[in-house]
Known about the structure:
Keywords: DNA-binding, Transcription, Transcription regulation. The chain is mainly alpha-helical and about 150 residues long. It contains six helices and two strands, in the order ααααββαα. The longest helix has 22 residues, at about 5-25.
Amino acid sequence: MSNDSLSETLHQLKHTYTNLLLEGIRQQGVDLSVTNIRTLKGVCYNPQSTALSISKHMQRDKAQITRALNDLLAAELILKTDNPLDGRSQLLQLTPKGEAVMTKLNAAEKWTKEQLTQDLSPVDIALFFRVSRTMIDNVSTNKTTDK
């Protein structure tokens, strides 16, 4: 396979990142599935989150997110409170135990970033972000094309 293949390079980068991140998570002693981790992060980084808002943000079926939320509730990583704006939904927030897990996840992500970028300059990293963001924006569902 050609070293200039965009698809192969992106595929390898994705798997390298995922494997490194999972290794970092294991090193931190976090024993959660990828879906549960992403859901926990959704609760952490989206104030006033609900099961529906997390489902939409993650582009996952609400039933799948509900199962993950139930796992996180059982592990006492999150809690639900009544939503004062919508009596049919509940707001989600981290517990102190959930915050401690997020600290470990952030450490794993930092370690992963350090491993991937150790031989890159700040300019290289900034260029990577700019090019990656442009590629993502090129196919964003919010972008309209006149073709």
